[in-house]
Amino acid sequence: MIGDRGVLLSAVSSPSGTVSSSQFSQGSGVTLGGVFRVALGAACGAIALLPLGSQPSLAQSSNFGNFELTSGSQSVSVKGSTGGTTSLPAITSDVDRDRNKCLGFGDPKPDHMMTLKQGFSQLTLKVESGKDTTLIVVGPGGVTRCGDDTGNKKDASITDSDWAAGTYQIWVGSMEPGMRSNYRLSVQGK
Predict the structure, then answer these.
(1) What are the angstrom distances between the C-alpha of 130 and each of 86, 154, 169?
(2) What is the total count of domains within the chain?
(3) Which of 1, 29, 34, 70 is the most exposed place for a label (fewest CB within 10 A)?
(4) From CA 106, how far away is CA 85, in angstroms rounded?
(5) Cα three-residue angle 37-39-40, rounded to 5 degrees
């Protein structure tokens, strides 16, 4: 069975060699580009094509929900957990707009979606988990911001200026693939 990020194409051969059925799961935000794994079912002649990876899409949902900020002094706090095995720089960017290195492992689907109803002169995003976390935010126009250790703590944070109104994808990652830890992400606007 394929989850909500998967694409399934199946075809069953008839004795004449023609396809008698086909199925495509749509609405996942995944396109049919990229590399596919082909599995052949010997007993029934079925073929399944599965994407090995895909680029993030702003149309997709998030693992732990969406939130919005509407005014400059508003703050929001949300919870989630790390634990994916996908290299986050491989699906976002190796470096951010300020040439900071993007790091970590997580799920291909963003952990959170943040909507800014207006532009913010400054935002601070801070992870609290007690573990070694990373933070990647991709906003309108593909502008990427990345954060790692905060001072002498291992939790990640980003403080940056000039946040445009729009929707932002947020990934909270871990430094090791599959490393599970619960976190609280706080966002403070100015």
Answers:
(1) 21, 7, 23
(2) 2
(3) 1
(4) 5
(5) 150
pLDDT tens column, 42-69: 333 333 333 333 344 444 689 999 999 9
Instruction: Show Cβ contacts of residue 177 under 8 Å, excluding neighbours closer than 6 positions.
Output: 84, 85, 105
Is 185 contained in some domain? yes
Residue 76 CB neighbours (<10 A): 15
Residue 152 and residue 76 share a domain? yes
Pairing outcome for strands 112-116 and 66-69:
parallel
Provide the CATH number for the domain around residue 101.
2.60.120.380
- DSSP codes, 32-72: S-S-EEEEEETTTTEEEEEES-----TTS--SS-EEEE-ST
Residue 133 shares a structural domain with residue 177: yes
* Together in a domain, 160 and 101: yes
Between CA 58 and CA 127 the distance in angstroms is: 22
Residue scoring higher pLDDT (26 or 80) = 80
What's the DSSP call for residue 101?
A: B
pLDDT tens digits along 153-174:
899 999 999 999 999 999 999 9
**Structural domain range at position 18:** 9-51
The residues facing 181 across adjacent strands are: 82
